[in-house]
Design brief:
This protein is an alpha/beta fold and 260 residues long. It has 10 helices and 8 strands. The protein has one domain: TIM Barrel (Alpha-Beta Barrel), CATH 3.20.20.
Length: 260
């Protein structure tokens, strides 16, 4: 899954792909490099990020979705707003990726309304508190057990509503209300999330945990991002969400060849 942020303030590539032309060019590069899914986001959820209005988010993402809807790879909308989900699904996106795990008002209904005509994938992420406060002294009794319990409850809620389990993906949410120790614990025991019976996404690309370990600035974290991707894949991740598509695809080709 390649990250395509149409935002001015995302932590790694904010402002690079705000115009539709720049976003399309980046998507074409990712497609050429072997991406399977393009995840389009119009609002940053980095620690401390300020929310944007619905209209601002729609103005950022809908033209890009419209331009890419026949690009030949799956499209995902990265949003927690129900109306953005509805509008993106009307344009034919294949997946909704929600950092709030469909806990915002109307989000579950937006998914259920769409599913009769066009079933979509759903990514449910764990986040402690909200983007403004999530990194203020995050605390867990047991980070693995707590995150698993939350994700299982959210997924089960959708299954009860009639959503097929194989359309649900869970994401433990690296960096979303977790300390460095929590993040390392989750990566070390990543296979535990697969035990819930859903596909699991790993999103660690360029994150601050890698900067804390290496001392590298955001754009200098390609090597640890790839290492984290391989560790996650080796522990059961089915989707790897990244900024650096070419490098990660190449590394995963070697990993897959060894598995075979």
């Amino acid at each position: 899954m390649g990250i395509l942020n149409t935002t001015p303030d995302s932590f790694s590539d904010g402002g690079k792909f705000r115009s539709v032309t720049d976003a399309i060019a980046q998507a074409e590069r990712m497609i050429a490099n072997g991406v399977d899914i393009i995840d389009i986001g119009g609002e940053s959820t980095r620690p401390g990020a300020e929310p944007v209005s619905l209209q601002e988010e729609l103005s950022r993402v809908l033209p890009v979705i419209e331009a890419l809807k026949n690009c030949g790879v799956a499209l995902s909308i990265d949003t927690y707003k129900a109306e953005t989900m509805r509008q993106a699904l009307k344009l034919g996106v294949d997946c909704v990726n929600d950092v709030w795990a469909l806990r915002q008002e109307g989000a579950v209904d937006a998914i259920l309304e769409n599913r009769a005509d066009q079933p979509c994938g759903i990514i449910l992420m764990h986040m402690q508190r909200d983007p403004q406060t999530m990194q203020f002294d995050p605390h867990y009794q047991d980070v693995i057990a707590d995150v698993k319990s939350f994700l299982n409850q959210r997924a089960a809620h959708l299954v009860e509503k009639g959503v097929a389990p194989d359309s649900i993906v869970i994401d433990p949410g690296f960096g979303f209300g977790k300390s460095l120790e929590h993040n390392l614990q989750m990566l070390a025991q990543f296979e535990q999330f697969s035990q819930l019976g859903y596909s699991v996404l790993a999103g660690i690309s360029r994150k601050s945990m890698l900067g804390k370990l290496t001392g590298r600035d955001t754009n200098e974290r390609v090597a640890p991002s790839i290492a984290a991707a391989i560790l996650a894949a080796d522990r059961g991740a089915r989707i790897i969400r990244v900024h650096d598509v070419q490098e990660t695809v190449d590394a995963l080709k070697l990993w897959e060849a060894v598995q075979d």
